[in-house]
Amino acid sequence: MQLLRTSDADFEAKFDRVVRDRRESDAQVGRDVSAILNEVRERGDSALVEYTKRFDQHNLSSDEDWSISKEACKAAYDGLDAELREALETAAARIRSYHEGQLPKDRDYTDDIGMRLGARWGAVEAAGLYVPGGRAAYPSSLLMNAIPAKVAGVERLVVTTPTPKGEMNDLVLAAAHIAGVDEMYRVGGAQAVAALAFGTERIARVDVVVGPGNAWVAEAKRQLYGVVGIDMVAGPSEILVIADKDNNPEWLAADLLSQAEHDPTSQSILITDDRGLASQVMDQIDLEFLKLPTAKTAKQSWDDHGLVVLVDSLDEAPALSDRLAAEHVEIATADPEALFGKLRHAGSVFLGKMTPEAVGDYIAGPNHVLPTGRRARFASGLSVLDFMKRTSFIGATEGALKAIGPAAVRLAEAEGLPAHALSISRRLS
Amino acid sequence: MQLLRTSDADFEAKFDRVVRDRRESDAQVGRDVSAILNEVRERGDSALVEYTKRFDQHNLSSDEDWSISKEACKAAYDGLDAELREALETAAARIRSYHEGQLPKDRDYTDDIGMRLGARWGAVEAAGLYVPGGRAAYPSSLLMNAIPAKVAGVERLVVTTPTPKGEMNDLVLAAAHIAGVDEMYRVGGAQAVAALAFGTERIARVDVVVGPGNAWVAEAKRQLYGVVGIDMVAGPSEILVIADKDNNPEWLAADLLSQAEHDPTSQSILITDDRGLASQVMDQIDLEFLKLPTAKTAKQSWDDHGLVVLVDSLDEAPALSDRLAAEHVEIATADPEALFGKLRHAGSVFLGKMTPEAVGDYIAGPNHVLPTGRRARFASGLSVLDFMKRTSFIGATEGALKAIGPAAVRLAEAEGLPAHALSISRRLS
């Protein structure tokens, strides 16, 4: 953990190092993934069988080994503890409602020269969703990725998830039932992403691949960008909390640790103008490590990447926060709106002291798949738009073509493209 | 050129080969580009100097060697032929007007439990635009890429363009003046994309890189996806014309050749139910080759990738067209709306016999940067959204947190994330 003061002489150099720290994967992963993608592309299912045996100790042989049926998902759903089932349903309903409001509107109008112009949105036909296995198998992630796809209108939603030693996660199956997943395959890693992108004998290819995963999965998505659409390159996640002096250190400690407990590479940052609060929060975090079941991961993250920045005034906070362009920004101040108005780069913002980031992870409604690694400078959270595409259209009348065609002919000639010019001038003669 | 009939026994196999044909670059380009990116990342300007000398025979030494001033762009604009200047201004005004209609709306509402939810859109701070040099230096491309960035609200718009042997293109400079480009550097190739993404001593890094280029530029963008935002992976372009029997073969020949003259890897496709029209168009194209100044490129494209598909009924056309998911689709029929309604995957559609594709390249208003290589299945044309990002936000009251917090706590506990649960439960106790 680093404690920096903006008033210190070496602040700029040290803060800049934090901003530039990438916490990301290496070239060896890139080569390994590239080899796996080629194998799956060339050999299809037989490559999946080999990799799944090697990496997941799972034999793909019978239909049940390969896929999880809708009936199995329904059974997992029925078997859930009633309160947990209701919690999942509440989350799903709220996520659905928020994402329905994202559906884009078509355009279709005729301008002053009689030219019809517009754009029409439509869903992709098929989407693939990667769901991690083992400890990181989160039903909330399934809901957050699958529901926007279904709201967008995707007809075929395919999940791939590793089942190490054959083990399945009932919560994930139940979430798949709620979200209306159409197909579910028991493969994971880069090989699963390759199967979704290229297609194999068993798994028909999709148009878009989304979902979280480890470094191999993220790298596979990066390499396959352009072959299929992908949601984004996901890296270790961040929380940045901007807090005034009137905060409960126990609340803020929990907020910071809720990011740190995800992964040793996660990053938790506190910006405050109150030295006393900073000390209290740091002390509280040390206390939490004594009892928190996830202390090992959380402590490693906090020790290696944790950051507390003391500012003279909270007015400094938005600019610092923008440089970090964090995935999650909590504004725990009396007037959160004032700072929010000055903030420019963040995946999602949590306004006020009663809004812990975790409420957004599960149940508020907006997506929890958000840009990480400073990518909020240019990227957005997952939305229905990731599962849709837009077709523009143009309809000219003879009058409209007469009005602007000659200018286009002139430009085509200037660019040395005579067939372009002819295609217009012949219609005007 | 291939002529296929849907009624032939081997149609499916042959058509499938066309759909799968990728016309794209090889692994060697990937390795070359990877090396260039590393050099620019490590050595900055000095790498740019070396590559620019080697690839463009241009020495980067004085400020004038490095960049093109706003004054130089203004002078190029002032020096243009008046009609050409007016054509560029008309195009710019129409492109600006169409893209202003794309600006997304923010959301901000409070739901039935008192939870405030929403999303706020904002522009990226800086965007880089690659403009090819030499023969493919198109002022229309500059307008199509730069204007959406400015409409989105990008403050710093940087152009990189190679100037082989020092040669600049006045039309491109004039277009930069019209579009309001802020900085313009005389570097090209993968090295220019690397400079935009990583930044060098002279060129500050940007957040998004857009613009067309050769295979090296396209591969550089692909490899840097995630380091910066990129518009899309661009490949060879396509036109697909759906025509009924009542068409002028001279018009359609020009339309097909307007794509073929771009590049030998471009693809022009005609789908018609009229054998006579197909023959007339093919004959006309052969005639054009005798006089068209761009015949060499156009003939190679038509010979290698041209395709004529004879259908029994035009009702077959939308499904065939969707499999090709072409960049440009012209519907040259009496009732274009009927087929357009059945079409699902296309970059842009040109409705009716008076709408040649070239009118969209220059002046209609919608963007001419469109998904190629079957990517219209999942990708969209360039828009203001490529230069913007969305920040979601959540604001809970105590009442709202009480209403849904317990469900989130339950889910966090089920996922084995105790700090997540604590961050909510502590605020409820």
TrEMBL record, chains A, B:
SUPFAM superfamilies attached to this UniProt entry: ALDH-like
Residue positions binding NAD(+): 130, 191, 214
Catalyzed reaction equations: L-histidinol + 2 NAD(+) + H2O = L-histidine + 2 NADH + 3 H(+)
Pathway per the UniProt entry: Amino-acid biosynthesis; L-histidine biosynthesis; L-histidine from 5-phospho-alpha-D-ribose 1-diphosphate: step 9/9
Keyword Metal-binding set for record: yes
Root EC class: oxidoreductase
Membrane-traversing stretches: none
Its biological purpose: Catalyzes the sequential NAD-dependent oxidations of L-histidinol to L-histidinaldehyde and then to L-histidine.
InterPro entries per record: Ald_DH/histidinol_DH, Histidinol_DH_CS, Histidinol_DH_monofunct, Hstdl_DH
A single MF term (Gene Ontology): histidinol dehydrogenase activity
Keywords annotated in UniProt: Amino-acid biosynthesis, Histidine biosynthesis, Metal-binding, NAD, Oxidoreductase, Zinc
PANTHER family documented for this protein: HISTIDINE BIOSYNTHESIS TRIFUNCTIONAL PROTEIN (PTHR21256:SF2), HISTIDINOL DEHYDROGENASE HDH (PTHR21256)
Active site: 327 (proton acceptor), 328 (proton acceptor)
EC number per UniProt: 1.1.1.23
Family: Belongs to the histidinol dehydrogenase family.
Gene giving rise to this polypeptide: hisD
Gene3D superfamilies linked to this entry: 1.20.5.1300, Nitrogenase molybdenum iron protein domain (3.40.50.1980)
Residues reported to bind substrate: 237, 259, 262, 328, 361, 415, 420
Cofactor binding annotation: Binds 1 zinc ion per subunit.
Protein name: Histidinol dehydrogenase
Cofactor: Zn(2+)
Residue sites binding Zn(2+) per the record: 259, 262, 361, 420
